[in-house]
From TrEMBL:
SUPFAM superfamilies per UniProt: GroES-like (SSF50129), NAD(P)-binding Rossmann-fold domains (SSF51735)
Family the UniProt entry places it in: Belongs to the zinc-containing alcohol dehydrogenase family.
One Pfam family, short name: ADH_N
InterPro entries on file: ADH-like_C, ADH-like_N, ADH_Zn_CS, GroES-like_sf, NAD(P)-bd_dom_sf
Protein name: Theronine dehydrogenase-like Zn-dependent dehydrogenase
Length: 358
C-alpha cells in the first residue's frame, strides 16, 4: 500500500521543533520529481533558522542538504528514471529567469523556487529534506545521478557545504604558491580548506577556538597550520608565516563581526577576502582603516551549478568529505541531533540523517 503520511521535522517557533506527521508530497507540475530522502543532514543554517535569525516563517519543514532516490517523475522529465539515486542542490531553480541565467540561482524569481526547507515572506516556500519524501520543482535542473560505484555518503555535501566552501576558494582567486587563511574550522571552513588544495597553495592556515576541530584539520591533512586564538595572537602568527605581509587569500567561514575583522586585518595589502559565513547580526567595519589596503571583499550565497564539477572531483579521488560524518542516526532521532550538532556536543561535525525507522 502506498504511504500517505510521513515523518517531518517542523520548526514551530524560535527554539521549538518537533517530529510531526505530514502528507507525502505529490507531483504538482510535469517538471517535478518526488524523491525518497536516503541521506540528509542538519546544517548550521538550520540552527540559525530555529534561532529565529533567518527570516523563515514557522511552521515549516526544515532541511536542505540531501541525497535521494527518485520514486515519482513528472511527465516532462525524460533524462532520469524511477529508482535513480541522486545528489541534489540545496536550492531549486527554474533555469529560465534573469537571475538563473546569471548563475544566481538562489535569487530565482519563480514562485516555486527557493532554498529547500525555507520560505520568504509572501514569497516562495519549499518543504525541506528532514522528511521521508521531498517534492523537487524543476527537478532535472539540479538533481544529479550518483555515479556507479559511489554512494550517498560520498556525495552528501555537494549540494550545500561543499559548494559553499568551494565558492569561497573560487571567489578569492588562489594562485599556486600563495598562502590561504581560513577563519572557522566548522564544516564549511573545512570544505574550503579541502578544496583550497586544488589550486596548489603553499600553505593553508586554519583558525578556530575549538581545538578538537583544529586537530581534525591537521589529522585529515586539510590544513598545514592550525591556530587557536585562545592560545596565540592570530595576526602576529599569520604575519610571521607570510614574510610579514599577511595572508594572500582569506576565507571567513563563521559570519561574525570579530571574525570578519580578523580576516580584514590578516589579509595582505592587495589580497582578497571572501566571507561565506552566515550572519545573524549586523556588522560594523572600520573601513576608514581598511580601505587603504586595496583589499577585494566578496560574499555570497552558495552557487549551485558546481555540483557536476564537485561530483567529478570526488569521483577522481581529489576530494573526500566522509570524515565530516561524525554522527549518523535515523530521522527518529533528529531532535537529539539538533541538540548534539547545534550545541557542538561530543565533537560533532555533521549529524547525518538516515531514513525513518518504521
Ligand atoms: Zn546549509
Ligand atoms: Zn529562475
Amino acid at each position: 500500500m502506498k504511504q500517505e503520511t510521513m515523518k517531518v521535522l517542523v520548526y514551530h517557533e524560535p527554539g521549538k521543533i518537533s517530529l510531526d506527521d505530514a502528507p507525502v508530497p505529490k507531483i504538482l507540475k510535469s517538471t517535478d520529481a518526488i524523491v525518497k530522502v536516503t541521506l540528509s543532514t542538519i546544517c548550521g543554517s538550520d540552527i540559525h533558522i530555529i534561532g529565529g535569525h533567518a527570516g523563515v516563517q514557522p511552521p515549516h519543514i526544515l532541511g536542505h542538504e540531501f541525497c535521494g532516490e527518485i520514486i515519482e517523475l513528472g511527465s516532462a522529465i525524460n533524462n532520469f528514471k524511477i529508482g535513480d539515486r541522486v545528489a541534489i542542490s540545496c536550492v531549486a531553480f527554474c533555469g529560465e529567469c534573469f537571475y538563473c541565467k546569471q548563475g544566481l540561482h538562489y535569487h530565482c524569481t519563480d514562485q516555486d523556487c527557493t532554498c529547500f526547507g525555507t520560505n520568504r515572506p509572501n514569497g516562495p516556500s519549499l518543504s525541506g529534506c528532514q522528511a521521508e519524501f521531498v517534492r523537487l520543482p524543476y527537478a532535472s535542473n539540479y538533481m544529479h545521478k550518483i555515479p556507479e560505484g559511489f554512494t550517498e555518503e560520498d556525495m552528501l555535501f555537494v549540494g550545500d557545504i561543499l559548494s559553499t566552501g568551494y565558492f569561497g576558494c573560487e571567489q578569492v582567486h588562489i594562485q599556486p604558491g600563495e598562502s590561504v587563511l581560513i577563519i572557522g574550522a566548522g564544516p564549511v571552513g573545512m570544505c574550503s580548506a579541502l578544496t583550497a588544495k586544488l589550486w596548489g597553495p603553499a600553505q593553508i592556515i586554519i583558525v578556530d577556538l575549538d581545538q578538537s576541530r583544529l586537530d581534525v584539520c591537521l589529522r585529515e591533512g586539510i590544513a598545514d597550520i592550525a591556530l587557536n586564538p585562545a592560545d596565540v595572537d592570530i595576526i602576529k602568527n599569520v604575519r610571521e608565516l607570510t614574510n610579514g605581509r599577511g595572508a594572500d587569500r582569506v576565507i571567513e567561514a563563521i559570519g561574525s563581526e570579530t571574525t570578519l575583522q580578523t580576516a580584514l586585518r590578516a589579509v595582505r595589502i592587495g589580497g582578497s577576502v571572501c566571507t561565506v559565513g552566515s550572519y545573524a547580526k549586523p556588522v560594523t567595519l572600520p573601513l576608514n582603516t581598511y580601505w587603504v589596503k586595496n583589499i577585494t571583499l566578496s560574499m555570497g550565497f552558495v552557487p549551485v551549478d558546481r555540483l557536476p564539477e564537485l561530483i567529478k572531483l570526488i569521483q577522481a579521488g581529489k576530494i573526500n568529505t566522509k570524515f565530516l560524518m561524525t554522527h549518523k542516526a535515523p530521522l527518529n532521532d533528529i531532535i537529539k541531533g539538533y541538540d548534539v550538532f547545534g550545541n557542538k556536543k561530543d565533537d560533532c561535525l555533521k549529524w547525518v540523517i538516515t531514513p525513518y525507522d518504521r
